[in-house]
Specification:
Elements (H helix, E strand, L loop, with lengths): L2 E4 L6 E4 L37 E3 L13 E5 L14 E3 L2 E3 L5 E6 L13 H18 L7 E8 L11 E7 L4 H17 L3 H12 L3 E4 L3 E4 L10 E5 L11 H22 L4 E6 L14 E6 L6 H6 L2 E3 L3 H10 L5
Parallel strand pairs: 2-15
Antiparallel strand pairs: 1-2, 3-4, 4-7, 5-6, 7-9, 8-9, 8-13, 10-11, 11-12, 12-14, 13-14
Helix pairs in contact: 1-4, 4-6
């Protein structure tokens, strides 16, 4: 029988459609197969991107030249622009402000045919370090309230370029999905004087039905009320509201878990397109006792259609317990 489940943070209900239950092998997502063709993000083509903001290269390496392990550059076609002032204004009941922000691209590797799941722990950690360093720098700008880090892998997930990359966008307002998490977390904390995310980590480590993998410092789990099949969350075990306050050791641990989850998703689901999003505390609220940074990994396996758009409900044909079992095994189950 179908089941309604409520997310304990934002109060969102989802439908776990057990009568539509599907095995990993039932999904026919087009696998992502990078073609080994050169592009602006490839090593040796540095002049084709805007000048780098940050890069991993030897101390004697030449900026904007070959010899790098990762690069961060401004997006050539930014959603928001770094120049200007916000200048908020009103038009009757409507509010507006200038589209000021920052939009940057993290080129994760010089190798066009590589992908994050196949990189070493050190290489994935470098990408996470790049996120942290750019967030710390952008945090200094009083115009910005938040930075959203995200990755689109594969055309079906919204990637317009094949070369492995992720993005970050600094915004002058807190995104509504993050605001909902902040509000739900604060309400739980007010009632119980505990962090809902910490409680979630403790319960899933005890119960283990939705736990995929864990290390000393991190867990990867299937949330109780997932919107999408095989939606996976990575959370630090220790309470930490702001991602940018993570230590290098912590980020190396996060890199190990992230790489392992992406490999297991590939093994179980045949290398599907996916998105990931980093949710962290807003810049001016880094010490929140009620919030916990986390990374959401969502394989692109189903489409959002009229019912979801019209109702706010999501229909998920894969119970999270079954998804966790498949990812723990790390192989396609027939």
């Amino acid at each position: 029988m179908p089941e309604l489940r409520k997310d304990p943070v934002v109060g969102r209900w989802v439908i776990i459609a057990t009568e539509r239950a599907r095995r990993p092998s039932d999904f026919v997502a087009e696998p992502v197969r990078p073609r080994a063709s050169a592009c602006a993000f490839c090593e040796g083509h540095e002049s084709q991107t805007p000048p780098e903001i940050l890069a991993g290269r030897p101390s004697d390496g030449r900026p904007n030249g070959p010899g790098w392990t990762y690069r961060v550059v401004p997006n050539k076609f930014p959603a928001l622009r770094i120049e200007g002032e916000l200048e908020p204004s009103g038009e009757g009941l409507f509010d507006r402000m200038n589209g000021v922000g920052a939009h940057e691209v993290v080129i994760e590797t010089p190798q066009h045919g590589a992908w994050l799941a196949g990189l070493s722990v050190d290489a994935v950690a470098d990408v996470l370090f790049a996120f942290r360093e750019r967030m710390l720098d952008l945090k200094k700008d009083p115009r910005f309230a938040y930075v959203l880090v995200f990755k689109n892998h594969g055309e079906a997930a919204g990637a317009s370029l094949e070369h492995p990359h992720s993005q970050l966008i600094a915004t002058p307002i807190i995104p509504i999905m993050v605001s909902e998490e902040l509000a739900g977390s604060a309400q739980y904390y007010d009632m119980k004087e505990r962090c809902v995310w910490c409680d979630m980590v403790r319960q899933e480590r005890r119960g283990r039905a939705r736990l995929v993998i864990e290390s000393r410092d991190f867990v990867a789990l299937e949330p109780f009320a997932p919107r999408f099949p095989f939606e996976t969350w990575i959370l630090p075990v220790r309470h930490r509201a702001a991602f940018e306050e993570s230590t290098e050791e912590e980020l190396r641990g996060a890199a190990a878990i992230l790489g392992e989850i992406l490999r297991r998703v590939n093994q179980a689901l045949g290398e599907p397109p996916f998105n990931f999003m980093l949710h962290t505390a807003p810049f001016r609220e880094a010490q929140l006792e009620s919030f916990h940074w986390h990374l959401e990994v969502i394989p692109k396996l189903t489409a959002v259609a009229g019912f979801e758009w019209g109702s706010g409900f999501f229909i998920n044909p894969v119970p999270p317990e079954d998804a966790a079992e498949a990812l723990r095994a790390g192989t396609i189950r027939s």
